[in-house]
Each structure stands twice: as structure tokens, then as C-alpha cells.
Amino acid sequence: MQELTHYINGEHVKGTSGRFADVYNPATGEIQATVPLANAAEMDKAVSFAVTAQQSWAAVNPQRRARVLMKFVDLLNRDMDKLAEALSREHGKTIPDAKGDVIRGLEVVEYCIGAPQLLKGEYTDSAGPGIDMYSMRQALGVTAGITPFNFPAMIPMWMFAPAIACGNAFILKPSERDPSVPLMLAKLFEEAGLPKGVLQVVNGDKEAVDAILYHDVIQSIGFVGSTPIAEYIYATGCANGKRVQCFGGAKNHMIIMPDADMDQAADALLGAGYGAAGERCMAISVAVPVGEDTADRLLEKLIPRVEALKVGPYTSGNDVDYGPVVTAAAKANIERLVQTGLDQGAKLVVDGRNFNLQGYEDGFFVGAHLFDNVTKDMDIYKYEIFGPVLSTVRAQSYEEALGLAMDHEYGNGTAIFTRDGDTARDFANRVNVGMIGINVPIPVPLAYHTFGGWKKSVFGDLNQHGPDAFKFYTRTKTVTARWPSGLKEGSEFSIPIME
Length: 499
Description:
With 499 residues, the chain is an alpha/beta fold. The protein has 2 domains: 2-248 and 457-479, Aldehyde Dehydrogenase, Chain A, domain 1 (3-Layer(aba) Sandwich); 252-438, Aldehyde Dehydrogenase, Chain A, domain 2. 38% of the residues lie in helices and 22% in strands. It contains 16 helices and 23 strands. The protein has helices at 40-58, 62-78, 80-91, 95-112, 115-118, 154-165, 180-191, 206-213, 227-239, 262-274, 292-307, 328-343, 379-382, 398-407, 421-430, 467-472, and strands spanning 2-3, 6-8, 11-13, 20-25, 30-36, 123-128, 131-139, 142-146, 169-173, 199-201, 218-224, 243-247, 252-256, 284-289, 347-350, 369-372, 389-392, 410-411, 413-417, 435-438, 454-455, 458-459, 474-482. The protein has a 7-stranded mixed β-sheet with strand order 15-16-17-14-13-19-20, with helices on both faces. A 6-stranded mixed β-sheet has the order 10-9-8-11-12-22, with helices on both faces. A 3-stranded mixed β-sheet has the order 1-5-4, covered by helices on one side. It is globular and about 85 Å long. The termini are far apart.
């Protein structure tokens, strides 16, 4: 069995806390590795190396930092197959989905190569007699990120790529469920020329998280995970004077109007609802057809598609639509919520409860489930299931459908399928959700726009990647300069006026 490590100051370092977590192969249910869980002393050691490394890294000009990112992109492409295989082995997602995980992270790295442009400040010549004013964007120092299991390549890169491009050091605390890929990414970044100590990986659980939250040197924290933990990290981090951005849970609605192409809508729901076994914060988990006829036509198209989904291990190649969920506990929680849905009166039109895969009986596989006649007071509607479960809520009007998305406590993403531009425009303008898809089921913005939800899906003022990332990982310093030839004799006791 493999014993994983931390990655501190350019070295694979064994854990010293004496605490470890098991890393499973979700397809077989077998323990394939152990990962150390850091204590505060181990975190402090990483921070001390980060402080020294950051000072020299920040002194490197942005263009030269960008060249390291360019090389990192080359290495990501070179090792794409290795990264995807390691990711699938620990997470369970299919190889194509794992490659997508890496590529969406790589795209943010590519965007960050533009750091020389993105870090430029502003300049005003002759703001007053002999006075010039200019602003600079400067690195924060040592930054940290706490990332989830469902995107072990993409989300770490969404955080550490802009942080490092801005001249910061970065300490990554990845999920202990699938930690191998983050370790591989850190090694590749140093192969690209990143100095030791600028990017470090410290594995752990809540003890490591709290060490980040209470460490005096760490200046900012990024987090993606569940809303209760996001609230905790945001409140605690802010109370300790840190800049914090936290992204929490989601319950994403897709509204299907009567004029929508039902084949297109059904195909979209299939991929958005069941891809990656539903373990995506941008997964569509609620279908909202408008009108009884629309609902009937949609389900007529959707039910056979869901029944035909192929579930299996990533080693089956392209013959599998989605793989297992990440842990036995995740599987049990999904099955509990499915039963709750039945108990509360929802109609299970595709029943995946008896799914069994020969030869993989101990794996964490969950069959595809499709509910109809779900109401907004049911648990399967209120809570994020994070599994291959799609709920259909029938709305009688567009306004009712819009209200469902607007009234829900989460506001991460939503979509509408329609041929009518006026309806789509009204929906995009009025709905109180952060990311909107119009005939696009998973509206994850590209790297040069920002990613982030509203309401209880996000805590903090700035989103991930895009221009917001460079704002989050820098401080603005504004300089007002006047040279001796323009100085007047005598002292000034009032606020200077730029006449």
C-alpha cells in the first residue's frame, strides 16, 4: 500500500503527526493508499519556508513569472494521461471527465500568463502642480487554499495559478480523499522552474484547516466545499484578519419552456445531471418544465435516456457514462435522501436503488435516479444531494419556474432552455443566481471571466479566476509624488488640494 506525503519546500515529506487517512479506490472499495494529516507544527514549517521563498519570488518581474507558467502548461499537456489516470483512480470519474478536470484548470493557468498586463496599475500625470499619482498591485505574501475532492486538479489550479502569478507563495490543503494529483501538480510546477517553497501541499483535515485559519502569517484563504464549512471558514478567517473567498453548496435549476427543443433539453439534462455521478457544484439537480404538456414531453424523452446510462469503473474506457461516487459514506447519504424522497411523496420514475455491478460489488456505485412530482418542501429539493439524482418539479407558468430558482437558498448556477429571446433575456436579467445558461446546461465561465454564485453559494466579495482573481491576490498601493523643485516653503496643516 502506498504511503503518500506532504510536499514541503520542494521535497516529499512524511507526516509527523502520527495521524493518517485512508485513500480508497471508489470502484473497488479497497484502500489503496494512506495520506498523512498534518498538525499545526507541520503547517507552521511549510509557512516558514513559504515566507522566505515568497520574498524572492515577488521580486521576479511578472514577465519572467509568466514564463514559468508557460512551461507549466507544457508539462500539464505532456503528463495529461498520467494526471487523468491518477485522478480517476482516486476520485472514480471517467478518464475523459478527468482530462476535462485538468484542462479547465490548465485554461486558468493560460489566462494567468497574462500577468504582466493584468498587474498593471494606473498613472495620472500632473494631478497637481508637479504632482504625479500612480497605483501598484502588490502581492499579499503567503496565501492558502482549501480544495474539495470533486475537482482535485481544476480547483487547486484556479487558486494557486493566479496567486503565484501575482508573486505570492501558496500553501494548498487538498481533500484527503484524492490527494495524489495535487502532489503531482506541485512537482510539475517546480519542474517548470518555480522556486522551492512557492507552492507547497500540506495534507490534512480540520486540524490543518484550523492551522491555516489561525496562522498569523497567512494573508488570504480560498475555499470550495459545502456551505456549512464555507460559513465557518469565512467567519473564522475574517475574524482573524484574513482576506477570504468561500464557495459553498448549490441546487441548480434548469427551466424548460414549452417552445424548447425537447431532445436538446433531455440530452442537456442527461450530461448536466448525471455526469461525474452528479458530484459537481454546477450539476443540474432540478428540472423545471413549464406546463403539464411540457413535463410529459420532456419525461418521454428523458426516461429512456436515463435508463440507458452506463455506470462502471474508469478502466472501462469510453463505454462508461459515469463512475462511482467518492466514498461509502457519500453513497449511503445519496441512498438515504432517495428513500426520503419516496417517503415524502415524490414519484421515482427511474429507480437506481438496485444497481449492482458484477465484479465490483464493494465499489461505491450508485444507479441513476429520476424523480417526478417533486415539491419544494421535500428534502430532495431543498438539499444538495451530490449524486446521480435528478428531481423534476412541474411549474404551471414561467413566473412560477422563475420563482423556484429565485426562492431557493442557493444561487450558484441556473439555466433556461427556450427558443424565445425575450423570455431568455428576462430570465437572465431577473434571476438572482450568479451564473446563467441560456440553452447551456452547465454555465461555467471560461477562464477570462469570473466564476461565482450568489446567496448561500458564496461568501466574499470576489469570485474565482478571471480579473477578480488578480484583485483577490493583490493589494493596491497608491502613490502621490512631488519632487523638491515643486515644494513650497512652510508647512501645510490642511488636506492638500490638487489645484
